[in-house]
Amino acid sequence: MKPILEVKNMTMDFGGLRAIDSLDLYINKGEIVALIGPNGAGKTTFFNCITGIYTPTSGDVLINPQGKQERINGLKTNIVTRKGLARTFQNIRLFTSMTVLENVMVGCHAVTHTGVMGAIFRGKSTLAEEKFIVEKSYEILKKIGLEKYVDELAVNLPYGAQRLLEIARAMATDPFLLLLDEPAAGMNPQETAELDELILKIRDNEGISILLIEHDMKLVMSLSERIYVVDYGKKIGEGVPEEIRNNPVVIKAYLGEEIDA
Ligand SMILES: Nc1ncnc2c1ncn2[C@@H]1O[C@H](COP(=O)(O)OP(=O)(O)OP(=O)(O)O)[C@@H](O)[C@H]1O
């Protein structure tokens, strides 16, 4: 079985700056994989290239959720979402003046037939779908542990809960692969421990594979089955947590930073 995501020889240039340099990466079905590296290494750019925000300068992005490999470079973000790749952002991007439930509903609408406009100009045909979406959104909030906030405005949620709401909204698009960009950023140790459990649950119970960018090495080492390390856009290490922890090139790139979590 081919990997569900395969990136071959990806390069991304911004003018004279090579943000990603000939990068290869794959994720098998059901894996939790981390992408780590110092600030400015190109990690978010890599996510942006996979999810259609940027078209890579060269290379291939191939997905294979159901036994048929397909190239997705250059597809628009909404199409990539419909194909089953969902992401969260480093800086929280919620609809702050909407309720928690409505935020998740927006995720559902991103992949339904009627879409957001259909939900606004409700015809009879959209009402059944709308009911389904409310129920589905509520179920997702229960799985994430946010149901107690269902009618709360997103802006009023504690910080850690806002981060989880982003994950809930991403899950509403029925992804086969979830791309999480620094999900633990700004979380306290207890929130991070809960996030650790939640990510495992999403993989185990929902069968969603995970690609994770994260600076919290304890979380990375505990969650990931495999880790890729990038620096200046280039892959400098790849392996299971134990290999990464003992890789001298990785240790050097992280000099002064905590790696032995
Ligand atoms: N739109 C853009 N135009 C020009 N340069 C960019 C653009 N986006 C990113 N870069 C540059 O590409 C490089 C990689 O940035 P990127 O944000 O991908 O790094 P990162 O590994 O995600 O960093 P961090 O851990 O700090 O989030 C940086 O030098 C950044 O300044």
From TrEMBL:
GO (cellular component) term, any one: plasma membrane
UniProtKB keywords: ATP-binding, Nucleotide-binding, Transport
GO biological process: D-alanine transmembrane transport; L-alanine transport; L-isoleucine import across plasma membrane; L-valine import across plasma membrane
Domain ABC transporter: 5-257
InterPro entries in UniProt: AAA+_ATPase, ABC_AA/LPS_Transport, ABC_transporter-like_ATP-bd, BCA_ABC_TP_C, P-loop_NTPase
SUPFAM superfamilies in alphabetical order: P-loop containing nucleoside triphosphate hydrolases
GO molecular function: ATP binding; ATP hydrolysis activity; L-isoleucine transmembrane transporter activity; L-phenylalanine transmembrane transporter activity; L-valine transmembrane transporter activity
Statement: the UniProt record of this protein carries the keyword ATP-binding: yes
Coiled coil: none
Keyword ATP-binding: yes
CDD domains linked: ABC_Mj1267_LivG_branched
Pfam families: ABC_tran, BCA_ABC_TP_C
PANTHER family, sorted: AMINO ACID ABC TRANSPORTER ATP-BINDING PROTEIN, CONSERVED COMPONENT OF ABC TRANSPORTER FOR NATURAL AMINO ACIDS-RELATED
Protein name: Amino acid/amide ABC transporter ATP-binding protein 1, HAAT family
Protein source organism: Desulfocicer vacuolatum DSM 3385
